[in-house]
Amino acid sequence: MSMAAPRGKVVAIDGPAAAGKGTLARRLAAALGLPYLDTGLLYRATGRRVLDGGGDPADPCAAEAAARALQPADLERGDLRGPIADQAAAAVAAIPAVRAALLDFQRQFAAARGAVLDGRDIGTVIFPAAEAKLFVTASLAERARRRHAELAGRGMAADLAAVTADMAARDAADAARAAAPLRPAADAVLLDTTALDAEAAFAAALAAVRARLGAA
Ligand code: C5P
């Protein structure tokens, strides 16, 4: 008899900022009874740690040290959203040593029971053998509109043009970086949520993931 614990299924949800991945991933995890990890928080918390120490998130030494020192409580911080955290996250995320330092955390998270994870490279780098992979997109204009509304809902006033420009710059940096660039895995199901409301997007995502898990 094998002593290896049965490992649960891994569902990888990737895509650009504000495409709706987080909401979908959280709901999918609940529907499938799997743990959920928002991997963007790892990069956000790493960037915040560097800023706390007065460092530059683009400095590889400072950023790697921050990633290695990351504690679970860092992911609970209240200042991980907003433009400063966005930029710090994208800067540390371009550093290969940071990505390497955060890889084990992500793999360990799913080791016992499987998981739903959302990010940029879950299906391409972290879990290339994930049972189900979704690549969630929406037009830049729609993603900027959603992010603007989300910021307003949290009382953070922002200019739509500035949100759009920030998002375009972050998309470009995520897609152009040499280390784990944002791109769909060859075997990912593509889901464009531009014209879908939250319920329609969830129904489409759940159907796609169930079809993959059923076939896995
Ligand atoms: O998903 P979220 O917008 O919170 O991610 C913040 C930043 O972290 C992204 O712009 C990206 O640079 C980086 N990231 C990444 N790989 C992941 C998750 C996030 O490079 N798996």
Helix/strand layout:
Layout: E1 10-14, H1 21-32, E2 36-38, H2 40-52, H3 60-68, H4 83-93, H5 96-111, E3 115-119, H6 122-126, E4 132-137, H7 140-153, H8 160-176, E5 189-192, H9 198-215
Parallel strand pairs: 1-3, 1-4, 2-3, 4-5
Helix pairs in contact: 1-9, 2-3, 2-4, 3-5, 4-8, 7-8
Features:
216 residues, alpha/beta, Rossmann fold, five-stranded parallel β-sheet, 9 helices, 53% helix, disordered N terminus, binds cytidine-5'-monophosphate
Descriptive report:
This protein is of the alpha/beta class and 216 residues long. It has a single domain, classed as 3-Layer(aba) Sandwich (Rossmann fold). The protein contains 9 helices and 5 strands; from the N terminus they run E-H-E-H-H-H-H-E-H-E-H-H-E-H. It has helices spanning 21-32, 40-52, 60-68, 83-93, 96-111, 122-126, 140-153, 160-176, 198-215, and strands spanning 10-14, 36-38, 115-119, 132-137, 189-192. Cytidine-5'-monophosphate binds at residues 17, 39-40, 43-44, 89-90, 93, 119-122, 170, 174. Cytidine-5'-monophosphate binds next to helix 2, helix 4 and helix 8.
Gist of the model:
With 216 residues, this protein is α/β, with parallel strands linked by helices. It is built from 9 helices and 5 strands, in the order βαβααααβαβααβα. A 5-stranded parallel sheet has the order 2-3-1-4-5, sandwiched between helices.
